[in-house]
Design a protein that fits this description.
The protein has helices at 3-26, 28-46, 63-72, 85-98, 135-145, 164-175, 196-205, 225-235, 237-244, 248-261; strands at 53-56, 77-82, 103-107, 120-126, 146-157, 211-222, 266-267, 270-282. By secondary structure, the chain is an alpha/beta fold. The chain has a single domain (3-159, 183-219, 275-282), classed as Rossmann fold, CATH 3.40.50. Strands 1, 2, 3, 4, 5, 6, 7 and 8 form an 8-stranded mixed sheet that branches.
Amino acid sequence: MATDTLDAYRAASYEIAEAIAPTWERRRADIERISTPVREWMLKELRPQEGDTVLELAAGLGETGFEAAAAVTERGRLITTDFSPAMVDAARRRGAELGVKNVKYEVMDAERIDLDADSVDGVLCRFGYMLMADPAAALAETRRVLRPGGRLTLAVWGAPEHNPFFGIIGLSLGQRGHIPPLEPPPAPGVFSMAGAERTTALLEGAGFSEVRTEQVPVRFVLPDVDEYLSMIADTAGPVALALRGLPDAERSAVKTDVEDSFPRFAAEEGYELPGVTLCVVAS
C-alpha cells in the first residue's frame, strides 16, 4: 500500500478504536470469555517471571497484561499501551477495578514504540498486529525493545473459512454494498496474518530467530441472532460502525441474511459458532 493510503488507514483505524472503546468496555466479560483459551496460551508461552518488565501492545482493555502483572509481582512491572486514548482510559479503569498496582499506562503506537532498546523482558499483543498499517515495522520495533532472550507472544485470527463469526456478517454487508470487498494480504485486516507462513516470515524479517505457531480454537456461544448482531455492532471495528449506521430496513435485511446462515450452528441453548486463532511465540 502507498504511504498516503497507509496514513489514511491509520487515521481511520484511530477513529474506529475511539468510537468502539465504550462498547468494547461494556462487552469486556463477553470478549474475555471467548478469548480465554488465547489469553491462557499467550501467558503460558510468555513465561513471565518475578521482576520482569512486560509490554502489552494494542492492549485494548488490558486483560492479558493484567494477568502477566500478577506473575511478575510488585518487583516487576507491566506497561499497558494502545494507540487509542479511549482504550487506554478503559484499561486504566479496569486495572483500578482489579487493584493492579505495578502497571504504567501509555498511549503508544506499536509501529513507533517509545521505549529504549533492550528494555523489556516480554511483549504481548492479542489481535493487534493484523490490524496495523505496517505490521513489519511494528514487529521490528518489538524486536528492538526486547532484551536478548526475551519473548513475544501474539494472537491473530486464523483463516476466514474457520471463523464464521466474522464471515457471516462480512458476506451480508459486502454483498449489499455496505462495506468494501476484503483486500487480501498484505493489506491490513482481520485475516491479514491468518497464514502461519506469512506470519512467520514477518517475524523472521523483523529479526526473530525462533518462531512457533499453533492454532488455538475458540467458541462464540450466542442465544440468538439479535445478540450476534449486537455483539458485532459493539466490537467488530469497521464492520461494527457499518452495521450501526444502517437504516432500519437495511439492518432488517442483514438480519434476514444472518438468520439464513445460522441454522447449521444450532446448539442446545441457541447457537455455537466455532473460531480458530493463530497463536505465536517468538524470540
